[in-house]
Each structure stands twice: as C-alpha cells, then as structure tokens.
C-alpha cells in the first residue's frame, strides 16, 4: 500500500512537469501565431489546451484520493496541497496562451503585431519561454535556488511590458484602436504568464522548505 | 477534540464569507474611485487589500492544520480543499479591485472613465456587485440552486464587456491611447472579477454535491 502511495506522489510530480512542458509549447506556438499570423499554430494552441485541463483535473482527483486514503502529514501533505496550487497556475498559463492564439486567429491573415512591436513581442515570448522552462526545471529538480531566480526573470518581463506600453503611448503610435486593444491585452497576458511561472517556483520553495518566499501571495 | 475540529471547519466557512464581504466592498469602492475620480476611495481599496491577503493565508494555515491533525475524509476533506480554491478566487477578486483603484489613482484628478462610458461602467460595477453578493450568499447558505444562477449573471457581465469594447471600437471614439488602454484593462478586470465569483459558486456546488458543474474549470 505504501508503495502505491509513493508512486502516486511521484506521479503527481511527473504530471506537473508535463503540464509545464505543455504550457511552454503552447506559449511558444502562441507567440509564433501572433508574430507570423500563423493560423495553424493558433488552432493548435486552442485545441491542445484541453490536454492541460485534463491533467489539472487528474491531479485534483489523485490529490484528493491520496489525502482521503492515505491521510498524509507534514511534508507529503504540503506536497499534495502545493501540487494543487501549481496545477492551477499551469492550467492558467495554458489559458493565457489560448487568449493570445485567439487574438492571432481573429486578426488572421494580418498579424496582430505591428512592425515596430515585433522585437518587443519576440522578446516577451522569449522571456516567457525562459520563465516556463525554469519553472519546469525547478519542478523536476526541486531546486530552491533556481526557484528563487524567477522573480528576477519576471522583472525582465515586467520591464518589457512597460516598454511595450511606452511604445503604444508614444505620439508616433498611429495604429487602430483595435490594434491598441489587442496589444494592451496581449501585453497583459504575457505579464500574467510570467507571474504564474513565479508562483509555481514559489510554491516549490514552500513545498521543499515549508517557508514561503518573501511577499509570496502578496503579488498582484 | 472533535468539537474544536468542527469549530475550525465552521471558522473556515465564516472566513470565506468575510472574504466575500471584503471583496464586495473593495469592488464597490473601486467603481466609485473610477467614476468619481475619488482618490480616497482608491487609497482605501489599495490599503485594505492586505486584510484579504491575511485571511487567505490564515485559511491556508487552518486548512493545513486541519488536514494534518484530523485527517478528514469524504465531505470534510472536500470542504477543506474547496475552501482553499475559493480563498484563492476571493483573494484575486480583491487584487482586481486594487488594479481598478490604481487606474483611478493614476488618472486623478481626472476620471479614467470618459463620459460616454459612465453608464456601462456603472452597470459593470453593479453587475460585479450582484455577482459577489450572490457568491457570498451562496457561501453562507450553501445554496446550490443559487450557485447555479451565477453563470447567467456572469453572461450579463460578459455582454456589458462586449458593449464596452464595441463603444471603444466605434469610429466616434476619439479618446487618447492612454484612455483606450485604461478602459481595455478595466473592462478585463471587471470581467475577470465576474469569472472568479462564478468559480466560488461552482466550488460550492462541488463542495456540497461532490459533482462539478458542467464545464467547470474549462472556462477561460
């Protein structure tokens, strides 16, 4: 019985790592969809999101069963509760990629990204990739030091987001209101994606150490 | 021992109801801050958000202790896990009110809401109030039928959100890019506030019945 128990606990961890892979792939394709007006990439992100939702539900089910049947305490219990939080964050990261993909699909065959913002959006996509890749690594290695780096990585995302808004607010910005709306929301979605990656890392720190990083859960 | 246990379980429910009250008050004041360019209201929302964060942390702590010490099963376990989810949603609703309050503060002494959008924003504020008030009532009465109404209430919020975007996209829209950005994000924050209220209600349904409403966790 204890063996199955530990297998189930390990499986939770594996499923979270898998979610991080899915979220990473979704975000990479969503950025491609936006920049290249790539309808196939957009559709792929939208249709593949169910997989992420399914794993989220599975994690919830397994976590519940583990708690009900095995009545874990201390670190195991912390691990299971933390897995629920992380799963919610990773599921949400998939949603944010879907939002971006839907923007790309709505504007197809045009690109939702005006030429002068291509560099910033490319950079935001890359920074999102850094964040979700690190979150995945943090999960697989249970690496607290690496986890604590994500705040700084997210600061870079926030800086890119500010630069994007500065560009839109520049008197030279001559694009349509529709374009302004799309860019405003896209910027927000990248920024939130970064926040959730940081959450995942912070949850890992709590899981391993029992201590929450400073200001955790205070970020808005 | 069991008495303390049930007191703690009841206390979790009470704290969630209290969070719904805080979130409702925050959103009502945030809407006032936006519409009336009321700096005091904005500051109040921003400074009072810590209270919501504190209760969220307290719920997490109590839930963990309950699971570790009492090893609840079946409905009690479901109640505790659900409380964690609801607490996260309600805490986030406070954050969204803070975002709106910060927009109002940034634009003070001007109002962030152009005259032609005052009616829609007033309606969105009222709809947010309906949603969070019902979520609170759902929590206090554990009323599954009422909980299932929230999807329809949220449809009204989504409709208001669409009308807002239609107004911004109208060729008559002559406001600054800054204003377009603020309104775009404000609309998004109201819409997300509604989504989280629906989540709270759906979690309550799951808590009471053990069944998730259709498409729960699939909303993006």
TrEMBL record, chains A, B:
SUPFAM superfamilies per the UniProt record, alphabetical: PhoU-like
Top-rank lineage group of the source organism: Bacteria
Major subcellular location class: cytoplasm
Keyword Cytoplasm attached: yes
Residue intervals of the PhoU domain: 16-103, 122-202
Keywords tagged on the record: Cytoplasm, Phosphate transport, Transport
InterPro entries, per the entry: PhoU, PhoU-like_sf, PhoU_dom
Keyword Chloroplast attached: no
Subcellular location: Cytoplasm
Coiled coil: none
NCBIfam families tied to this protein: phoU_full
Family: Belongs to the PhoU family.
Function of the protein: Plays a role in the regulation of phosphate uptake.
PANTHER family: PHOSPHATE-SPECIFIC TRANSPORT SYSTEM ACCESSORY PROTEIN PHOU
Self-association and partners: Homodimer.
Protein name, UniProt field: Phosphate-specific transport system accessory protein PhoU
UniProt gene name: phoU
